[in-house]
Prior knowledge:
alpha/beta
Amino acid sequence: MVKQKKRVLAFGTFDGIHPGHIYYLEQAKKFGDELIVVIARDKTVEKIKGKKPILKEKERKHLIASLKPVNKAVLGLTGKKTFEILKKLKPQVIVLGYDQKPTKKELEKELKKIGITAEIKRVKALNSKRFKSSKLKKEIIKKFS
Length: 145
């Protein structure tokens, strides 16, 4: 009998990969055998963060797919269909970063609506004072201005 791989799902924008992102993905991979990373679409990033990402979605997907802990990277869905990707990927574990939305409770509610049963884990920050995308971008802008 072939043992089914435990599929782990992680989400993110990953616009400018830094050590905090690597740490998040390494920790996520520890919860299972196969790590699939869902990359936020450009439209989603703009809606949530109020600005366009620096790198285009396909560029961010390519970068994430090349990382050692990642088995597969896919682009997410937009609008009301955001959670539909979970039906397609069927994860046993969903891993959130320390500051990611939705909350565990909100995600559990959405999973119940679409009939998905998955453990929800949250990874602690590597160093949130140093490795936070918004802070690093501000430092880069300041340095090169």
